Amino acid sequence: xAGKLKWVTDIEKSVLINNFEKRxxxxxxxxxxxxxxxxxxxxxRNCFSVENGFxxxxxxxxxxxxxxxxxxxxxxxxxxxxxYRKEQEKEGSxxxxxxxxxxxxxxxxxxVTFMLPAxxxxxxxxxxxxxxxxxxxxxxxxxxxxxxxxxNKLSQIKKWSRDSxxxxxxxxxSKEAYVISLYIDNPLLIGGKKFDLRLYVLxxxxxxxxxxxxxxxxxxxxxxxxxxxxxxxxxMFVHLTNVAxxxxxxxxxQVHGGKWTVSNLRLYLESTRGREVTDKLFHxxxxxxxxxxxxxxxxxxxxxHCFECYGYDIIIDDKLKPWLIEVNASPSLTSSTANxxxxxxxxxxxxxxIVVPNGEIPDCKLNKLPPTEVLGHYxxxxxxxxAQADGAERDLKSRGGQPTGVKGSxxxxxxxxxxxxxx
Length: 423
Ligand SMILES: Nc1ncnc2c1ncn2[C@@H]1O[C@H](COP(=O)(O)OP(=O)(O)O)[C@@H](O)[C@H]1O
Ligand SMILES: [Mg+2]
Known about the structure:
The protein has 423 residues and is an alpha+beta fold. The protein has 13 helices and 16 strands.
């Protein structure tokens, strides 16, 4: 069996195992020599923990970056994006341009968010500016809609704070951290229902940034018609698009699972709103994804043994503005429908073709850029090296062919970049 890739996983999902077996790879246990480990986020924490002192060798690959949580924890994602905005502003980047009310023209793509309890006072200040707004409380360390609730009065948050202080004997430090975000109360509705997008983005390196967008994302619909009415604030079937929530609804459809493909959404929008605004919307979605990755790239441990497939949650509002809601490190590989199973099997297949070229034992010393033929349903979303080379070339041309030296290699984005600078 020499020469065959040895795999391990602690996630018992058939879409993974079938893909490994199809390639003739050999299953081993964690304690044996392995080349490829598809692991849960708990395991990656142990794998790279200081106590463990575990060092991966050149022929080993894992499916998370060690500190992926900089992007995938709700509080840290916002913190990093806020820091990125300030940095852009300091550098005088045109990306950080603001309108007359002091709002970022381009970098305002996450709903206003505060950490609780740390930023409680800042939150109260903001709340008082627009007391009729609705806010959404989300525990930082949970997923699948667990622990989320909506509020529209300060008294509700005071009650939450009191309850969480007195509900147990846990110390202040182990008390659960929350984020509170402005609730997007004007979502784009289709058939009267709210939905969000689940998009898959593969990152193979952060410095330089190289990321791929999966063409087969989908929309997840609520089962109950949307209303911003305060009497329905507690009805999670109206407000939360998570399948884990909606599948318990009376009107959940087992056949389509409340899902639409992104290409269906595109067709729907092209026919109801027109081609131009639809293209603009998708361009903006791609743009905010790249910005979110750029925001965390400097703090990411760019370990060469790592890649990661993120599940992006995006909400589109009724003005066709996309909002980044959160990024998941372990997007669900559970199949809720037959189509879902095919999609997730193909997703894993395409990831493996990119990160394990030809299914051979990995060699992290080689820095291969996969040829377009192996990308499957992925397309290159952003390649920092190519963008910089492109920027340098444009610079060169604009200076009448004079070499531009060090300065010339800076690829400064101006405003929201045009499609051509993505590749
Ligand atoms: N700021 C917001 N405005 C509107 N809807 C939101 C907002 N934040 C979250 N949601 C809804 O709640 C769902 C769950 O929130 P999310 O942040 O993705 O947490 P989870 O980790 O539990 O999935 C989202 O898929 C979306 O439908
Ligand atoms: Mg989510």
